[in-house]
Amino acid sequence: MRGDRDGAAVVGVGSSRFGRRLGIPVRSLAVDASRAALADAGLRADDLDAIVVESTYVQMAAPPDSVAYELGHRGSFRSLASGIGGAGVVSSLGLAELLVRHTDARHVLCYFAADFGSATGGPYAFPVAVDTKQRYEARHGWFGQPVYFAAMAERYAATYGIDEESMGAVAVAARQFARLTDDAVLQEELTLDGYRAEPMIAGRFRRADCSIIADGAAAWVVSRADAAVDRPHPPVAILGVGHASEPGHSSDTYFTQRPDFTTTPCTESAAEAFGRAALGPSDVDLAEIYDCFTISTILQLEDAGFCDRGGAPDFARQGALELGGALPTNTHGGLLSHSYTVGGQHIVEAVRQLRGEAGARQVPDAQVAFVAGLGLPEHASAVLAAA
Amino acid sequence: MTGESSPWDAFWQFVGDGSIRLPVCSACDEPNWYPVETCRQCAATSFTWVPLSGRARVYVSMLVHRDFQGQERPLPYQVALVSPVEYDTVRVLATAPPTLDLAVDDEVHIVPASGPGGEPVVAVSVDDDGSAS
Q1: What value of ipTM does the predicted structure carry?
Q2: Given an 8 Å threshold on Cβ–Cβ distance, is B81 in contact with A151?
């Protein structure tokens, strides 16, 4: 059955505190967010039949067995990991959907937690252990996510053209939403002039083109449709999830050999998600798109079909991503301005929008949300709908 | 990892000796970049290290204003990805002076050089007048 509402739904969402340096252990952040999500869902820890988390970081940093114990779970449950980075965060929705459709599982907890703001080296600590990074890439200065994504922006600029007003529009829209979101880390006003005054980082990236690095956690509970009713909040249906990976070209090589720097596997994952939902980009009321850098939003807008190739810069410059625009995007401020939960808070925000709980930043009559998570070489997309 | 033998050892040995070479499968002629123990196309384990002319085309190049490695590298620095004319699907990293103006598709020459810590690197060759040679 395609696009049905009889499969799985998000019934609860929650978050921890967010901040640049909270000094709180990752597991505690995960527990805080999970406890909030369970309360939101009207469930107890013992109700959980499975826990699904991101594979490369959270599974080790905040292991499901540990978090479940802290939450008070005393039974058994399935423990699964769902993929890389933001892709793993969003694909947790798909794995949870599979579990509630095809096993006895009724309630599945998913979470993402990180203390990259407090931890030594933050996200830059990961590639130090990679052989090719040590033996080849680092000595040439090919090191750090801003470098890789700035290279994508340079190729995009040479292929399609992009000006600073368009990149600035992505950053400014995110900040506008963050200023309407109480727990967003960045609350200072950002104008286009302010964007232009930001210090340069790499290529054409200014500081405001780059995600903030912060601590925090987000959690969401997925339930089987028949177990999603009579909960405290209306269920948000998971209509379709897609997940795609590129071969080889990203992990060991840190992206240098990717055939095309101007696309991501969002092309495939969004097509799968929309196909399962039996919906298309024109049906979407708001988008929560993995915005580790402004160019990431631009590429995924095109990959997912919201714009033609080369069309996203104009789309952004015309205000489409803002409240009242054609596609309000990252309505909590995203990775650029809200927090660094690698897409977790994107899911939380999509659910709150579809429940009509987003207050001053509420997208009017929000019925369908598109959520995109990037974790090269992977990408996952999800289409969610209001009850 | 470091200290153990690696498919990179031969690459750096050649760079140290003054030539940039890529490993090409002796059985199927497929260039295997980055170097590996086993050909990605035919699984053979013998490679011929083919010297490059050095002529290459810029895939992307940019200035970097922050040192994310914390190695006190002089800032800004420039890093380029270039495709050798002999193997245009392959991309090789190269350093370049920050003052050098490099754009996508520029034709450049890459040469063995020394990195900021004295380690061997590949670099974009610069003429006496400061332009890419």
Answers
A1: 0.95
A2: yes
